[in-house]
């Protein structure tokens, strides 16, 4: 019974992961199609870390591979499995651990299930599909001359926190900013850059949006979160003449 329960739990976990893909050019396979139809691979440039173990990729010790069953970008350790895939004439193909378990019913010695997902361990695709706002932004460094471009999300189920991912399909955020209590500041356009800031005491974050319209949307969303507004109707009810 324990084995059956684990198998069912893994199946549900796999369904959630597959249906969490939100990129329009990466349609998710239905569970019953796994192994029967070739997946469309997640593009390498959409992830900076393994979509299973969350470890960052690098050119030497942790390189990118694709699971031939689900199309996820995974590292060698997480794709060190073989399963027969119907769409490839039932020949053995490299698959990730989760697909191996799902397709073969076999168990593996390493079992990460039960590991609590921390505040940053929510996948970008999963969070973006239920977000108040998500898009690419640039976060400038302290001197304002350089910075990091990433994927920024304010989730519906955690509307007072800004999650920052390196890429829109990453399975782990690299940092988060609690927005409550911050001030949102507009900044004049500089060299065709649409700038705005989050400020609280001595802590200041400067962002660059791609367009003025996107900048205004982010400023409004962040201001609501900074004020502790979590209900979309709350602001309207509190607005007076």
UniProtKB/TrEMBL annotation:
Span of domain PH? 130-227
Annotated GO biological processes are:
cytoskeleton organization; filopodium assembly
Q: Name one GO cellular component term.
A: cytoplasm
Q: Where is the FYVE-type domain?
A: 44-104
Does the record's keyword annotation contain Glycosyltransferase? no
- Which superkingdom? Eukaryota
Alphabetically ordered keywords of this record: Cytoplasm, Cytoskeleton, Guanine-nucleotide releasing factor, Metal-binding, Phosphoprotein, Repeat, Zinc, Zinc-finger
Give the matching Pfam families: FYVE (PF01363), PH (PF00169)
Its name, as the record gives it, is FGD2 protein
Q: Which PANTHER family match?
A: FACIOGENITAL DYSPLASIA PROTEIN, FYVE, RHOGEF AND PH DOMAIN-CONTAINING PROTEIN 2
- Predominantly, its location class is cytoplasm
Species name: Brachypodius melanocephalos (black-headed bulbul)
Where does the protein end up?
A: Cytoplasm, Cytoskeleton
What GO molecular function annotation could you give as one example from this UniProt entry? zinc ion binding
CDD domains in the record: FYVE_FGD1_2_4 (cd15741), PH2_FGD1-4 (cd13236)
